[in-house]
Write a structure and sequence with these properties.
By secondary structure, the chain is an alpha/beta fold. It has helices spanning 11-22, 42-45, 60-66, 90-111, 145-164, 185-195, 215-227, 247-258, 285-290, 301-313; strands at 2-6, 26-31, 50-54, 73-76, 115-121, 167-173, 175-177, 199-203, 209-210, 212-214, 234-239, 245-246, 263-267. α4 links the parallel β4 and β5.
């Protein structure tokens, strides 16, 4: 297959590029490099089946110059992924998530490319009443602008699938961890502890329950579904593990890996910010049934946390954009 990957220089995007190249797909990656890092594509850049274009998908004319009828699929990962600061800059989620996705869909319609793979989020479930949360759970009030913008993307994709005879495969993720991880709680805590190993400031009370999946397991699932597609025109898959941990559990593993024992300073009550859902745990039986005997997560949550800490400690330059760490 010939596949266009948006957000190709990002954490998940670059790992997906590598996974697709291992399966001998031809991959064109695009990224505006606002948060993506060129070095994440060092391995891919050596592969004869990979090409990279630096462009912003908000520029539909530039996107249309790259996307033509020779492509079989678009894996659309480019997005603003900062859930926490959505309230501070609400237009960012609308522009970089919803409008950007509309641009991708329009470029696909113009070029005749029929299949979009879209990375959504478990945040669309808000504070779910059903735990573990299945894909057909009743949707509550949205609790984050990020989740709301991703849900709007899903609605656009499903409407384009019906209106223009496209195919859509949507993944609602839990948080990913692993190599090339550049934002999230592990990143924030490791950065804090490198600066000041004697104290750790934590948003929330640490009892929040979260589920994470290692990026290698996540991209393997996406690649497997490309090999074994759903017969449905529009399909939604939850993507995660069968485990969850508390934030305090994660902190304990981070501190153990770093050899520190800081004073923990909590703030924000039972949640750290608007939209910080205190319990995220997805029912992932649909994708496991679809990929029966083909795919299952190999790395447990706490192993994934430990592996991510080790990666960050050997790649401290990743903290430079957020301030230097000695």
């Amino acid at each position: 297959m010939k596949i266009l990957v948006t957000g190709a220089a990002g954490f998940i995007g670059s790992n997906l590029v590598d996974a697709l190249l291992l399966e001998n797909h031809t991959v064109v990656g695009i990224d505006n490099l606002s948060t993506g890092r060129p070095e994440f594509l060092n391995l891919a850049s050596k592969h004869p089946n990979f090409d990279f274009k630096q462009l912003d998908i908000l520029n539909r004319a530039a996107l249309s110059e790259v996307l033509d009828s020779s492509f079989d699929c678009v894996c659309h990962l480019a997005a603003n992924a900062d859930v926490r600061r959505g309230i501070e800059a609400p237009f960012r989620d609308l522009e970089q998530n919803t409008i950007a996705t509309w641009n991708v869909l329009e470029a696909m319609r113009d070029s005749g490319v029929k299949h979009i793979v879209f990375t959504s989020t478990g945040s669309v479930y808000g504070e779910a009443e059903v735990i573990p949360t299945p894909e057909n759970a009743p949707f509550p009030v949205q609790t984050s602008l990020y989740g709301a913008s991703k849900l709007a993307c899903e609605a656009l994709i499903s409407a384009y699938c019906e209106g223009y005879n496209m195919r859509g495969t949507v993944y609602r993720f839990v948080s990913f961890v692993g190599d090339r991880y550049t934002h999230g709680h592990i990143y924030d805590f490791v950065r804090q502890l490198l600066r000041s190993p004697d104290e750790l400031r934590i948003l929330g009370d640490g009892s929040q329950r979260k589920s994470y999946i290692h990026v290698s397991d996540g991209v393997a699932a996406i690649a497997a579904v490309l090999r074994h597609p759903s017969p449905k025109k529009y399909e939604v898959f939850n993507l995660g593990t069968s485990e969850y941990v508390t934030v305090n559990d994660s902190i304990a593993e981070i501190c153990a890996e770093m050899g520190v024992c800081p004073e923990r300073l909590y703030s924000g009550g039972s949640r750290g910010w608007v939209g910080d859902n205190p319990f995220i745990y997805l029912d992932c039986s649909r994708i496991r049934q679809h990929l029966d005997h083909i795919w299952a997560p190999k790395i447990g949550i706490l192993d994934g946390v430990r592996m991510t800490v080790r990666y960050l400690l050997t790649n401290k330059h990743l903290f430079d954009a957020a301030g230097s760490v000695q």
